[in-house]
Every structure is written in structure tokens, then in C-alpha cells.
Design brief:
Blueprint (H helix, E strand, L loop, with lengths): L13 E3 L2 E2 H22 L4 H20 L7 H13 L5 E2 L6 E2 L4 H37 L1
Antiparallel strand pairs: 1-2, 3-4
Helix pairs in contact: 1-2
Length: 143
């Protein structure tokens, strides 16, 4: 017996024609907002007044529903672009440190480095005390 194995299970199902459910919902929300702006402004103003906001909403709706830059959904692409814009691009790693220092200002760097050095000094002091204690214990056992 032969069975058909699905090939592309990550692809979203098409609901109406070439549209997925997510695309239909985005178009419905954007269309509703655009229509609400149109009905609110068209009664009292000329087309020059209501056309730009309706066009902006329509373009944003089409972008979020159908545009896929870098093979990502437009929503994910916008969120990653915002993250890229806000987070620092340079990071500094200090050996024997588990923390990444994100600030590149000299004063804050000096303070953070001095804090790390203090931590390292405390750890080495504890290690030295522990090794002395262990040596004393060994000497006591030998006697």
C-alpha cells in the first residue's frame, strides 16, 4: 500500500482562493479602518482630504497582508528591524566574565571593568583562603 506524505506542512492553508486566514483577517481589519475613515470624512470634505489617510491605511494593510521581505512575514520583519535599530551593535566581551557590556562610554566601561576586577580579586582571595585552610587541615592530619 502506498500513502501520500505531505510535503510542505509549514505552509499556511489557503482558505479563499490564494488567501490564507491570516491575510483575510488583516485585509478585513484594514478595510474596516479604511472604510470608517472614508465614511467619517467623505460626508464633510472633498476627496483630497479623505484620500490620503485611506490610501495610507490601504498601503499598510496590503504590506502586512502580502509583502514578504527576506522570506519573513512583514510583521516579523518590522519587529526585527525595530530590534536592530534599538539594540547596540557593538558588544564587548571581557575574559572571565559572563556578562556582556553594552555601553561603550569610557567612564561606564571603567566602572564596570573595575567592578569585574573587584569581583575577580574577591574570588582569588577566597580561593587563597580555601587553599590555606586545606593545607592546614592536611598538616593537622599528618601530625
Amino acid at each position: 500500500m502506498q500513502f501520500k506524505v505531505p510535503q510542505n506542512v509549514q505552509r499556511e492553508d489557503k482558505i479563499v482562493g490564494p488567501l490564507t486566514l491570516k491575510q483575510m483577517i488583516i485585509c478585513a481589519i484594514g478595510g474596516t479602518i479604511g472604510y470608517a475613515i472614508f465614511t467619517a470624512l467623505a460626508k464633510f470634505y472633498l476627496w483630497i482630504t479623505w484620500l490620503p489617510p485611506v490610501a495610507i491605511v490601504t498601503i499598510i494593510t496590503i504590506a502586512f497582508a502580502f509583502v514578504r521581505p527576506l522570506d519573513l512575514s512583514f510583521t516579523k520583519w518590522v519587529l526585527r528591524w525595530i530590534e536592530f535599530s534599538l539594540l547596540p551593535r557593538k558588544r564587548i566581551w571581557i575574559k572571565s566574565s559572563a556578562e556582556i557590556i553594552k555601553d561603550l562610554e569610557p567612564e561606564s566601561m571603567k566602572r564596570k571593568i573595575s567592578k569585574k576586577e573587584d569581583q575577580i580579586n574577591k574570588i582569588t582571595e577566597k580561593q587563597e583562603k580555601l587553599s590555606k585552610f586545606l593545607e592546614d587541615e592536611k598538616n593537622k592530619k599528618k601530625l
